[in-house]
Amino acid sequence: MRVFKFGGASVKDAAGVRNVYDVLQKVGYEDVLLVVSAMGKTTNALEVVIKNYFDKSKELQASVQEVKKYHNEILMDLFEEEKHVVFKNVTTLFAELEYFLNHNKSPNYNFVYDQIVSFGELISTTILSHYMNYKDIKTNWIDVRDFIKTDSNYRDAGVDWDLTQQNISKNVKRKVLNVTQGFLGSDENNFTTTLGREGSDYTAAIFAYCLNAESVTIWKDVPGVMNADPRFFENATLLNQISYREAIELAFYGATVIHPKTLQPLRRKEIPLFVKSFINPVLPGTSVSKGADLEPHLPCFIIKKNQLLVSLSSINFDFIMEENISEIFGLFHKYKMKVSLIQNSAISFSVCIEDKFGNFNELKNILSKKFQVSYNENVSLYTIRHFDEKASQMVEKNKEVLLKQVSRETMQIVTKEV
Ligand code: ADP
Ligand code: ASP
Ligand code: MG
Predict the structure, then answer these.
(1) Which atom of ligand 2 is found nearest the CA of 199?
(2) Among the listed residues 253, 254, 240, 251, the one whose alpha carbon sits nearest the alpha carbon of residue 289
(3) Which position among 23, 113, 136, 356 has the lowest Cβ density within 10 Å, counted as fewest Cβ atoms?
(4) Domain residue limits at 120
C-alpha cells in the first residue's frame, strides 16, 4: 500500500481538488491511503473562530460564516448542481460545529480548540471524497478518529501506538482508495484531539508505519526538499536524495516542508518518503531513504522567524549549573516552549525559544523570581547545515547578529533585522 498526503496548499480551491484527481490518474490509486489536510488556510480561519468564541466577540457568527462561504464556493465550482448529497453532508458538519459552539460547557481552551479546528479536515475530506466519486474514482472515506488513538494532551496529543496499530491492522481496507483526515485523532473518551499544527505529514507516517506501507508521498507546491525555502532564498536548489538523518535534522531545525515528527516512524521501518510537486507529479522530487552517503554537498539554509532570545543570569553571581538548568528546562516543558538553541556560560544561560502557545509572559514572571531575565522578541534563527564561509556571510549581511553557535556540521545564527 502507498500512502499519499495532500496538504492545505494542494486543496486550497476547486482547481486544487481537480488537480488531485489528475495526480491520481497519473500515478495510480489502487491500494492507496490518502491523508488530506484542511483546505488552504482553513485551520487559521477556525483559530479566529475559537478566539472569537472565547472573547465572546460579536464577530463570532461572521467568522463562522466566512469559513462556510469559502467552502461553499469550492462546492459550487466542483459540483455545479446543489442537489448533490455533498452539500447536505457539508451543511450537517457546519451544523455540528455550530451546535458545539452553542452548547459547549468546557472552559478548557485546548480541548475546545481541538473540537473546533477538526472540522477543517472533516469538511475537506468530505468534499474531496465526494468529488472523486462524482468523477470516476471510487473512494472509501474513513474517520481517522476511529484509527489514531491518543492521550488527552489536546493540541499536541501523543499517539497510543498499540491501540492505533490494532485499529489500523484490523480495519483499514486494502486494494481500495481510502480517504482520511490528517492532523486528527481521538482520546480514550472519543473526544477529538490534534497532533500539533501542520501535523498531517505525521498522520501519513503513522498510517504508513502501521500498514507497513511501500512508501509515503507528500505532495507539495515545491519540486521537493530544497536546500532552502524558495520563498526566502533565491536560487534554492532541489535535493534529489537525502538520508532520513539529514531530513530529520532539516525538519528539526525548522524546514517546514516536512513536519519533524514524520521521519522517525518511517526510518524505523525503512519506508521511503517522497516529497513531490503536485503541479508536476511525474517528476522525481526528493527521495528520503536510508544511507549515510546521501548527505547534500551544498549548504542548506533554514530560517525560523518570530523567535524569542532569552538570557538568564543568576542574581547573586551563582553558577548556572545542573540543578538550575534542570529546573529551567522543567519550566520550558511545563509552559510548552520549543527550545531551538542553547548556550551557557558560568553565570548566564541563553536560549532561543518559540512561544507557540502564548505562555511567555507567565513563564517570564516565574523565572524573574530567581534569575535576571533579559530577552529579545521577534528575532530570526538561521541554521546552516554544511555551512561554509560564503553561506554565513550571506546570512549575516545587513543584520545584527545577537548570537552565533558553530558545531561540526551546523552553524546557528540569531539575528535581528536592521
Ligand atoms: P502543506 O500544503 O503540505 O501544508 P506547506 O506549505 O506546509 O505544505 O509546505 C510547503 C512549503 O514549505 C513550501 O511552499 C515552502 O515555502 C516551504 N519550505 C520550507 N523549507 C523548505 C525547503 N527546504 N524545501 C522546500 N520547501 C520548503
Ligand atoms: N490543517 C492543519 C494545520 O494547518 C494540519 C496540516 O495542515 O498539516 O495545521
Ligand atoms: Mg501545512
Answers:
(1) 8
(2) 240
(3) 136
(4) 2-213
3-class SS of residue 91: helix
Same domain, 57 and 160: yes
377: pLDDT strictly greater than 90: yes
CA of 236 to the centre of ligand 2 (A): 24
141-168: per-residue pLDDT in tens? Answer: 999 999 999 999 999 999 999 999 999 9
Pocket of ligand 2 (CB under 6 A): 7-8, 37-38, 43, 120, 182-183, 197-200
Rg (CA), the chain: 23
User: Residues 117-131: pLDDT tens digits?
Assistant: 999 999 999 999 999
Tell me the CA–centroid distance for residue 36 and ligand 3, in Å: 10
Q: Is the pTM for the entire model greater than 0.85?
A: yes
Whether residue 254 lies inside any domain: the answer is: no
Do 323 and 193 share a domain, yes or no? no
Is any atom of ligand 1 closer than 6 Å to the C-beta of 242? no
Do 161 and 40 fall within a single domain?
yes
Ligand 3 centre from 162 Cα, in Å? 27
Q: What is the largest CA-CA distance in the chain?
A: 74
CATH, residue 131: 3.40.1160.10
**How confident is residue 324, by pLDDT bands cut at 50, 70 and 90?**
confident
The pLDDT assigned to 219 comes to: 98
Identify whether 231 is part of a domain: no
Position 292 pLDDT exceeds 70: no
pLDDT at position 296, please? 76
> Which of 158, 179, 213 is where one domain is finished?
213
Average of per-residue pLDDT across 300-329: 85
CA-256 nearest atom, ligand 1: 19
Q: Which of 340, 353, 359, 364 is nearest to 110 (CA)?
A: 359
User: What CATH number does residue 356 fall under?
Assistant: 3.30.2130.10
DSSP, residue by residue, 45-80: HHHHHHHHHHHT-TTHHHHHHHHHHHHHHHHHHHH-
What is the number of domains present in the chain? Answer: 2
Q: Does residue 204 contact residue 220 with C-beta atoms inside 8 Å?
A: no
- Which residue, 213, 233, 255, sits at the end of a domain? 213
Q: How far is residue 367's CA from residue 159's CA, in Å, rounded to a whole number? A: 31
Q: Tens of pLDDT along 164-190?
A: 999 999 999 999 999 999 999 999 999
341 lines ligand 1 (CB under 6 A): no
**CB-ligand 1 contact for 279 (6 Å cutoff):** no
